[in-house]
Design goal:
Layout: E1 4-9, H1 13-24, E2 29-32, H2 39-43, H3 46-64, H4 79-93, H5 99-104, E3 108-110, E4 114-118, E5 121-124, E6 127-136, E7 140-142, H6 158-161, E8 170-174, H7 178-189, E9 193-198, H8 208-220, E10 223-227, E11 231-236, E12 241-245, E13 250-253, E14 255-258, E15 262-264, E16 278-279, E17 282-285, E18 297-299, E19 304-306, H9 315-330, E20 343-346, E21 351-355, H10 359-364, E22 370-376, H11 381-386, E23 392-398, E24 403-410, H12 417-423, H13 428-432, H14 443-457, H15 460-469
Helix pairs in contact: 1-9, 3-4, 3-7
Transmembrane segments: 6-27, 403-423
InterPro entries: FAD/NAD-bd_sf (IPR036188), FAD/NAD-binding_dom (IPR023753), FAD/NAD-linked_Rdtase_dimer_sf (IPR016156), Pyr_nuc-diS_OxRdtase (IPR001100), Pyr_nucl-diS_OxRdtase_dimer (IPR004099), Pyr_OxRdtase_I_AS (IPR012999)
Pfam families: Pyr_redox_2 (PF07992), Pyr_redox_dim (PF02852)
């Protein structure tokens, strides 16, 4: 007989969610974690990065205060205090992800490296665990690219950045994606020199119309952007480290941060022994997140590579995966993953939010029946009152008015992403007719949606009908 009903490798967002659901439904669960409980999100990702961004935002607001007639002077940055805030946020949330909490649910939490030793067995801590079902949720790690000279110089990733005891004098960041840009702005606002080196263009996955305001804001914060710059090598420098570009340029700084992407943590899992197929992007699964080669095994979170969709390294996707797995693995019901309404946010200031596909992605997929609607935030009363009018809401719908995707850039637009995620596939009349509180930034989306119907409402036939209706008693 199996030792456990469900064996879960990885106590990050995905693994913890599956463990809680399984144990709550009365299944015997073993949860294996070789590192920190809570995974990257709690310890090295979402939580510390947003805490650091909050500190940077506070400094920026202090500098902006004179425009409102409030004069507080230039803020003094206490780096020890900033670090205390960041690690305090981690400590406040950690009990929710702790081994003690999950043991209290009846889960056997094993703090050891786990690896498959058979199609139905895992070994960890010197013990063999036979299982009925297994979920691999080992997550991902920062990519360390094969740059000449990198092995000879100190560098940072998201796993080491938040442990710095001193404020970087000049932080050089390779990579202009979400992590690189968020950390660039946070450090710049906290008084560091920052340079970002990006081989193509910053925020390359995002809607180009949304990148312009973000680029302007980063430059205004003092971030030096080097776009279209390819790294030839890195080397030691009197300042600390230098990045030599392919065109001969040289950027020297005190610290080097690598932010060029994520790769699944596949090493040491023994996937071959478990008969679990995998590739460079992760474990191969169907749309129910079940292994394509071992029907006892599922994958969740960053390490899952669903056929036709590919991996998505977002904490909220981990929660989505947990629900899909619960439906298929536990209840044996049909389950199918879809990213049609998936939101993502880059938490810079202004924030950039994308819900569903961009216009370019839809056109690349062969959609030529698109209607594009825009509303500038410069015409939003709340943001005018707050002096934050940069940005826009862009909606992409089909000709029948069903929302296919939404792109937003502006102050706090990530807080609106959930509304658009619920709207994907629905008619814009739902949003146009919604009663929203005034004044809020959400009205921009309502106004954009209303523009879909304005030409029909003001058409000649409607005007003629109104002309006749006015004679009715």
């Amino acid at each position: 007989m199996p030792d456990v009903d469900v064996a879960i490798i990885g106590a990050g967002a995905a693994g913890l969610s599956v463990a809680a659901i399984s144990a709550g439904l009365g299944l015997k669960v073993a949860l294996f974690e070789r590192g920190e409980m809570g995974g990257d999100c709690l310890n090295y990702g979402c939580v510390p990065s947003k805490a650091l961004l909050a500190a940077g935002h506070a400094a920026a607001e202090a500098r902006r205060a004179p425009r409102f007639g409030v004069h507080a002077g230039d803020p003094r940055i206490d780096w020890a205090g900033v670090r205390a805030h960041v690690h305090g946020a981690i400590s406040a949330i950690a009990p929710n992800d702790s081994a003690e909490r999950f043991r209290g649910m009846g889960i056997d939490v094993v703090r050891a490296t786990a690896r498959f030793v058979a199609r139905d067995a895992i070994e960890a801590g010197g013990r063999r665990y036979a299982f009925r079902r297994a979920v691999v949720a080992a997550g991902s790690a920062a990519v360390v690219p094969p740059i000449p000279g990198l092995a000879e110089v100190p560098f940072l990733t998201n796993e080491t950045l938040f442990g710095l005891p001193e404020k970087p004098g000049h932080l050089v960041i390779i990579g202009g994606g979400p992590i690189g840009l968020e950390m660039a702005q946070a450090h710049a606002r906290l008084g560091c020199r920052v340079s970002v080196i990006e081989a193509v263009s910053i925020a390359a996955r995002e809607e180009p119309e949304c990148v312009g305001p973000l680029r302007a804001a980063l430059v205004a914060d003092g971030v030096a952007l080097h776009e279209g710059a390819r790294v030839a090598r890195v080397e030691g420098d009197q300042a600390g480290v230098a990045v030599v570009l392919a065109d001969g340029g040289r950027i020297a700084g005190t610290h080097l941060l690598l932010a060029v992407g994520r790769a699944p943590r596949l090493d040491a899992l023994g996937l071959e022994a478990g008969g679990v197929a995998f590739g460079p992007r992760g474990i191969s699964t169907d749309l129910a997140l079940r292994s394509t080669t071992n029907r006892r095994v599922w994958a969740a979170g960053d390490i899952a590579d669903p056929v036709g969709l590919g991996p998505r390294a977002f904490t909220h996707v981990c929660s989505q995966h947990a629900g899909i797995i619960a439906r298929g693995m536990i209840f044996r019901l049909p389950a199918k993953l879809s990213y049609d309404a998936l939101p993502r946010v880059t938490y810079t200031d202004p924030e950039v939010a994308q819900i569903g596909p961009t216009e370019a992605e839809l056109r690349a997929a062969g959609r030529d029946d698109l209607t594009i609607l825009r509303w500038p935030l410069a015409e939003n009363d709340r943001l005018i009152a707050e002096g934050r009018t940069e940005g826009l809401v862009k909606l992409v719908a089909d000709r029948k008015g069903r929302l296919l995707g939404a792109s937003l850039v502006g102050a706090g637009v990530g807080n609106m992403a959930g509304m658009y995620a619920l709207m994907i596939g629905r008619k814009l009349s739902t949003l146009a007719g919604a009663v929203l509180p005034y004044p809020t930034a959400q009205e921009a989306g309502k106004r954009a949606a209303g523009d879909f119907y304005t030409p029909k409402l003001l058409s000649a036939p409607v005007k003629r009908a109104v002309g006749l209706l006015k004679y009715l008693p």
